[in-house]
Design goal:
With 302 residues, the chain is α/β, with parallel strands linked by helices. The chain contains 12 helices and 9 strands. A 5-stranded parallel sheet has the order 4-5-6-7-8. A 4-stranded parallel sheet has the order 3-2-1-9. It starts with 6 loop residues before the first strand and ends in a 5-residue tail after the last helix.
Length: 302
């Protein structure tokens, strides 16, 4: 059965101008356009602006809308744009999703509520209320390392069953037993289970997952697109070869807080991603050295 969301997607970095204002670096839309072109040219199936990798936590609503509109206008129609537009406030999540739909985006990646740590019933009611309020499609985003609360598989499957416009989940829990439960519990539906971890993507695809929303795809979109496509084609030996090549990239992009290493790696490749907004800072010299070595090994840096 063909799933709703399938393939390779990139969680976009939001480039910032290094203008001396560490509290509120301005968005560099020229560099953002270069990044999108770099990714689209590689054959990636879709992009996700304004997720965790795109500084969602430090963007204003107006900035999110501008970035998502820009991404849609810059991207060919064949490339899917999924809006990162969740909130820990249900009312605000609905309001932003409606504004995003007004600019022509109807697929929303909604992070689970962070900081307030709702119960499983609270998580269900949060997503159920959003699903009833907007006509567009919703991808749940489970990343307990950032939110402090896991969406249990029973809650995910309940939402998938009860709402036709809850079409998938980006799973970044790192818990393969949980991910298998969701995949196997939804295998007779079109519900999509997408890896939120580059390093687990192939393992999840082998279990009938449908792809990956990748951080590494910002830096090496050609290999990431090929890696995911081969996995989906069940060409596992070839996919495992690329996975092995990318293993160190997956690691170094998370040795300091994401997306700080990705910002530095992109600058080394000539895309001026700038320095993240506070409280995130530029990576250390030690991390820079490790990233340089990986980029050289991949042939991305001379």
């Amino acid at each position: 059965m063909k799933k709703y969301i399938q393939g390779s997607f990139v969680a976009l970095v939001t480039p910032m101008k290094e203008d001396g204002n560490r509290l509120n670096h301005a968005i560099d839309f020229d560099a953002f356009g270069e990044l999108i072109d770099h990714i689209v040219k590689a054959g990636i199936n879709g992009i996700v602006p304004c997720g965790c990798t795109g500084h969602a936590a430090t963007l204003t609503v107006e900035e999110q809308i501008k970035l998502i509109r820009f991404a849609r206008e810059r991207t060919p129609e064949k490339v899917k744009v999924i809006a990162g537009d969740g909130s820990n406030c249900t009312r605000e999540a609905i309001d932003l999703a409606k504004k995003i739909e007004d600019i022509g985006i109807n697929t929303h990646m909604q992070i689970s509520p962070y900081q307030n740590k709702p119960t499983q019933e609270g998580l269900y009611q949060h997503y159920a209320t959003i699903a009833k309020a907007i006509p567009g499609d919703i991808i749940l985003y489970n990343v307990p390392g950032r939110t402090g609360k896991n969406i249990e598989p029973e809650t995910t499957l309940r939402l998938a069953k009860d709402f036709d416009n809850i079409i998938g989940i980006k799973e970044a829990s790192g818990n393969m037993d949980q991910i298998k439960k969701i995949i196997h519990g939804s295998q007779d539906s079109k519900f999509s289970v997408i890896s939120g971890d580059d390093g687990l993507a192939l393992q999840i695809i082998k279990e009938s997952g449908t792809g990956c929303i990748s951080v590494a795809g910002n830096v090496d979109p050609v290999r990431v697109a090929k890696y995911i496509q081969l996995g989906l084609e069940h060409k596992y030996t070839e996919a495992e070869k690329i996975e092995k090549e990318l293993k160190e990239l997956f690691r170094v992009l998370f040795i300091e807080s994401n997306p700080c290493p990705a910002h530095y790696a992109l600058k080394k490749l000539g895309i001026q991603a700038g320095t993240p907004r506070l409280p995130l800072v530029e990576v250390t010299d030690k991390t820079k050295h490790e990233i340089d070595l990986v980029l050289k090994d991949l042939g991305l840096l001379k």
